[in-house]
Design brief:
alpha+beta, seven-stranded mixed β-sheet, five-stranded mixed β-sheet, Nucleoside Triphosphate Pyrophosphohydrolase, single chain, 2 domains
Length: 319
């Protein structure tokens, strides 16, 4: 059985919505064309907010969760894996992230210790919540459903920020939040492979991969791009939007944000920033007058390196 897990999103109480109104007004004014303006300059980080806000101020994002809120009932004793997700609302569209843990240098779902695979344990839900709360301080952990595969019993959990100003901190570097694009298409996060167990699970339960709005319409599923800062500023870290610069790489379009499609080669002192991208209206080539017609372009450098060219910062989100 499957039911729906809904998350409310109200723009009236969202600080990003208020910032957005200022950004829209500023974007309607001509760009500074002074010859003294640096070619590669970071934009105000507040611009990285949605350009297209929901028309319905009670816009919702939800996924279909198997056996929603029902007590876990497993038919066999099998290892228990935890599929925990969060729904991020502070970008152009809502998107999903799934928790993975690095075990033997491969990302997999977190394993929950159990002597009987949870088959006969009446307090399983409570124990899994406590187990995760001990790892994720200052986060709100909730049980949402369960399912099972031929090899594992799966507990489905949801993680929320404790407050809007906080981020969900990972317990250690062995954990990461992976996107659906990385799980299903790339099958890796940067250079670390994702276990086939994770991929096979979502092939059996594809409804968990897609966020939908209140009209049951799917939101766009974003892709992953990579950014390698040049002459990295002292304040630059892998989640800092101030490290993303616009550049002029093609004569037919204006300044854009350029992200590698594949993981770039780096030196020991370099960093790679993972960036989530909403491609929207995509053009496979760059032509004259196309800058305002498309949300993204596929761009190949003179060195035959493929990149995404993104005109507007609202179409990317630093992970």
């Amino acid at each position: 059985m499957s039911s729906t897990h809904k998350i409310n999103y109200n723009t009236n109480t969202d600080i990003y919505y208020k910032i957005l109104q200022k950004i829209i007004n500023e974007e309607n004014t001509p760009e500074n064309t002074s010859e003294n303006t640096p070619e590669n300059t970071p934009e105000n980080t507040s611009e990285n907010t949605p350009e297209n806000t929901p028309e319905n101020e009670d816009e919702m994002a939800f996924i279909d969760v198997p056996n929603y809120l029902e007590r876990p009932f497993f038919t066999q004793e099998k290892p228990i894996l935890i599929c925990m997700f969060q729904i991020k609302m502070e970008s152009l569209f809502p998107f999903l992230l799934f928790l993975l843990e690095k075990i033997n240098n491969v990302y997999n779902f977190t394993r929950f210790p159990s002597f009987d695979g949870g088959k006969n344990y009446a307090f399983l839900k409570k124990e899994v919540v406590l187990y995760l709360e001990n790892k994720f301080k200052n986060s709100i952990i909730s049980y949402v459903g369960f399912t099972e595969t031929a090899t594992h019993n799966i507990i489905i959990m949801k993680c929320n920020k404790e407050n809007e100003d906080a981020n969900i901190k990972l317990p250690s570097d062995d954990y990461c939040w992976a996107t659906t694009h990385e799980i299903m298409n790339l099958k890796k996060v940067i250079h670390t492979s994702i276990s086939p167990v994770v991929n096979d699970f979502f092939l059996q339960h594809p409804s968990l991969l897609y966020l939908k709005n209140d009209n049951n319409t799917r939101y766009e599923t974003p892709v992953i791009g990579y950014y390698k800062p040049r002459n990295m500023p002292h304040y630059c870290v892998t989640t800092d939007m101030r490290c993303i610069f616009r550049e002029k790489k093609h004569n037919e379009i204006g300044k854009c944000y350029y992200f590698y499609i594949d993981v770039p080669t780096i030196n020991s002192n370099d960093i790679i920033i993972r960036v989530l991208i909403f491609l929207g209206r995509t053009s496979l080539k760059i032509a004259s007058g196309a800058h305002d017609k498309y949300d993204s372009f596929l761009f190949t450098t003179t060195d035959k390196i493929q990149m995404y060219a993104i005109p507007h910062s609202s179409h990317y989100f630093v992970l």
